[in-house]
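Regression test case RT-17, inverse folding.

Input:
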């Protein structure tokens, strides 16, 4: 796991090494950075999956506890 400020560097390193990528949202610090990253991902043809980890989200935690009780 890395902070958002390092996502561009990590993603571009993975692209350069032909690796599949999972990147938490936000994927970049700016729209321009995100566009640059995605252009390089597409040009390299590597798998890129943006994601949003909600396991610590209060609403998600409440739903999970209610499902466990049901």
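Golden output:
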């Amino acid at each position: 796991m890395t902070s958002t400020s390092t996502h561009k560097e990590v993603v571009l390193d993975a692209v350069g090494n032909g690796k599949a990528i999972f990147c938490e949202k936000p994927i970049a610090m700016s729209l321009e950075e995100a566009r640059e990253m995605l252009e390089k991902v597409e040009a390299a043809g590597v798998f890129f999956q943006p994601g949003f980890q909600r396991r610590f989200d209060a609403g998600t935690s409440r739903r999970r506890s209610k499902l466990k009780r049901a």
